[in-house]
Amino acid sequence: MRTVIQRVKYAKCTVDQEITGAVDQGFCILVGFTHTDDRVTVDKVVRKICGLRVFSDPNDKMNLSIRDIQGKILSISQFTLYASCKKGNRPGFTDAAKPDVAIPLYEYFNAALKEQGMEVQTGIFGADMKIELCNDGPVTIILDSEEL
User: Fold this and answer.
1) Could you tell me the residue ranges of all domains in the chain?
2) Backbone angles phi, psi at 90, to 5 degrees
3) Catalytic site includes residue 3
4) What CATH architecture is 2-147?
5) Given 6, 78, 121, 122, the catalytic residue
6) Of the residues 27, 33, 55, 79, which is catalytic?
7) Is the pTM of this model over 0.85?
8) CA 77 → CA 15, 51, 57, 123, 126, distances in Å?
9) E strand or H helix at 137, and its extent?
10) What letter does residue 127 receive in the DSSP assignment?
């Protein structure tokens, strides 16, 4: 499982000119799954996300978590996080989980974040989404479950 976590002032997802999810201060998270991911993997990543101390405290130090600031999350499915560019110039996506595996894991990911007390907005799995955001800092963290 791979995630790209961006600390944002705001973020929104639009599909067919309709906003499907929007948040103010918090995270915009791009999330992708591979064939070996399961709920245990998701739980591990969710715990790490909820505990990341990347928001500024009163002394302007990155000491606060998304929980501490009561931030919100925009969660976007992103199979291209498993792109392989080893051969040629056209990425291959054989390491990305197929929808029958990825959709339930994506839904579980969002539900697990909510169980941790997070407000979660989403895009639409597999849709042509337009993501607009203001990266705050900029702060961008890449989490790969293989490295946790």
Assistant:
1) 2-147
2) -100, 120
3) no
4) 3-Layer(bba) Sandwich (3.50)
5) 78
6) 79
7) yes
8) 13, 21, 30, 7, 8
9) strand 130-144
10) S
Packing angle, helices 39-51 and 99-115, rounded to 10: 40
DSSP sequence for 55-108:
EE-TTS-EEE-TTTTT-EEEEEE-GGGG-B-SSSSS-B-TTBPPHHHHHHHHHH
Q: Which of 36, 70, 80, 140 is catalytic?
A: 80
Predicted local confidence at residue 83, as pLDDT: 97
According to the model, what pLDDT value does residue 54 have?
98
pLDDT tens for each residue of the chain, 148 residues long: 999 999 999 999 999 999 999 999 999 999 999 999 999 999 999 999 999 999 999 999 999 999 999 999 999 999 999 999 999 999 999 999 999 999 999 999 999 999 999 999 999 999 999 999 999 999 999 999 999 9
Annotation marks residue 78 as catalytic: yes
Q: What distance in Å separates the CA atoms of residue 55 and residue 88, rounded to the nearest whole number?
A: 40
Catalytic annotation on 79?
A: yes
